[in-house]
Amino acid sequence: MTTTLQDGTIAPQDRIFAALDTPDIERAAALSKAVLGVVGGVKIGKELFTAQGPDGVRLAAGGAPLFLDLKFHDIPNTVAGAVRAAVHLRPAILNVHASGGRAMMQAAAQAARETAEDLGIERPKVIGVTVLTSLDAADLEEVGQRGPAEDQVLRLARLTQDSGLDGVVCSPREITALRQACGPGFLLVVPGIRPSWSASGDQKRVMTPAQAIAAGADHLVIGRPINAADDPRAAAQRIVEELAAEAGQGSRGAADQAGSSEKARAG
């Protein structure tokens, strides 16, 4: 469950989903156990799901809040059926490709809502995948989409919102523009996150956790900086502590500024 602080923000640890990007069920379960209680949840994608199936997902998640990252993309009826099956895994968040179109996304949202009602559980957030964070403008041009990646992200994000979904997966570099386009209530789940002490890997549009939160991200998906670390729990804890320190500095700065303004008015 996500913890909301007194100022309305999400607690630092609850912002993070640790990515269990491995087909090895024992490795995934060990990673999940290692970060349990340190971060807000785990992200499980196609690699583990394809290798281990739904039972493997349950075992690997170990009861932690789950972001089910299967990126459904098919005709509306097929995606609706896949979402209905996915809701039985009780994810907190699941996603579909926004490029599947309005009808597909509406079918996904309806399937999630109705299945959750039938099961008597909380409805998962359904979010759209805009442009994969491994793609830049040159990659998009190769597949026939001209212009900056950010332009396509905004088009698909608006379509996602109009289709009744809860938010999008996006690159850190698009956070500010998406907030302006879609408003503060639109969920932004952000991969492409690398602490300053970690290499960027194969994602081309990256940002540090503190920078992403400052820009307006809701949740961060962090993979290799945690799961490739010698001590995944310590790496996760380091990221959370850095976020908490940054949040504390921001709060103190705001308080100091407010105090200075009050003194100026009194003077």
Account of the protein in words:
Mean pLDDT is 88; it is low at 4-8 and 249-267. Strands 1-2-3-4-5-6-7-8 form an eight-stranded parallel beta barrel, surrounded by five helices. The chain is of the alpha/beta class. The protein has a single domain (12-266), classed as Aldolase class I (TIM Barrel, Alpha-Beta Barrel), CATH 3.20.20.70. Helix 1 crosses helix 2 (46-61), helix 3 packs parallel to helix 4 and helix 6 (149-162) runs parallel beside helix 7 (175-182). The longest helix is centred in the last third of the chain and has 35 residues, at 232-266. It has helices spanning 25-35, 46-61, 76-87, 102-119, 137-142, 149-162, 175-182, 209-215, 224-227, 232-266; strands spanning 16-19, 41-45, 66-72, 93-97, 125-129, 167-169, 187-190, 219-222. It is built from ten helices and eight strands.
- The low-confidence runs, each spanning 5 or more residues with pLDDT under 50, are 4-8, 249-267
CATH topology term: TIM Barrel
Please state the average pLDDT score: 88
Which strands sit side by side, in order, in the main sheet? 1-2-3-4-5-6-7-8
* End-to-end Cα distance: 46 Å
In CATH terms, the superfamily is Aldolase class I
Percent strand: 5-15%
Helix/strand order, N-terminal first: EHEHEHEHEHHEHEHEHH
Indicate the overall shape.
globular
Rg is: 19 Å
- Helical amount: 40-55%
